[in-house]
Amino acid sequence: MIRLTSQTTPASGVCTPLCDGVWWLRMPLPFELDHINLYVLQDSDGIFIIDTGLSSRKSKAIWQTCFEQFKQPLKGVIVTHMHPDHSGLAGWLCREFNVPLYMSALEYFAARSIFGPNPGADLSTDKRYFQRAGVDQSIIEQHVRPRDTYTEGVEPLPLAFHRLTQGQTLNIAGRSWQVMTFAGHSPEHVCLYNATDKLLIGGDQILPQISPNIGVYSQEPEANPLAHYFESLTALGDLPSDVLVLPSHNVPYTGVSFRAQQLREHHEAQLAALVSFCEEPQTLVACLPVMYKRELSGRHMFFAVAECLSHLNYLMYAGRLTRQITDAGVYVYQQTGLKS
Hints:
Helix content is about 35%, strand content about 25%. With about 350 residues, the protein is α/β, with parallel strands linked by helices. Pfam families: B_lactamase-like_C, Lactamase_B.
């Protein structure tokens, strides 16, 4: 089983020690998942921060207060992955304090591409992505628009970065941190693992109480991220059970092997339900109630379409569903009867 840490959750905006040289900062978020956990690694001559929060005046003020608490210079910004709540303030922090950004290459370039301005871009592929899912045209118009500026909540990233790669070692705060990279939730998500003290800074890759979104998006509509996510669960599940996982949401916990198995079973149950539902041809939109029991709108619809598509693509590649396209340009999925 997993065991949540008995440590008191810090108040929003308060930096509190977790263990020698590792601090926990709870940053508020302005949506349903109302917080992100950020971490500070304290060296003798300065600090490194892990993830940044969204760009806002409030978040910037929290970081300023945090730095005053340490009375040490910021030495670098490490970003686990590109999503705005993790990378949104990276550009401001690096610019304001003249420090380097550390990211994996796929996360860095994906962030530059997806969240930056795209004036004059051909949006037909984005529209086709939603049309083939069977999404109503009015909803498509909400999500497919050109951008003249960076995505809200994301500062422009630095034009240079330090690349993090699988197996690399970072020596920070008297510890050797092994870089582990995984696909699934994002292209090349970075986790940091210290084997000596059994600490894993896990980002969003393996959360204690919710599953991270595993989505297929318009930039790569034929992707199979769920297969990659299952691979990451195998690797993380091989870590010692008493490793303390420091996640980006909820609270730190132990029992990573058990949690990896829980997450695998969760997704396998969704896959089985989709196969059963697709006895007759079904569109992606028709499949959404199989995975989501609540009404979907706005950003929830956007992420639900992406996650449902990741499961349908997985089943298609596994030979458990076939996919055809209708005269209206909508994909329909139907079970093949295979059990693999």
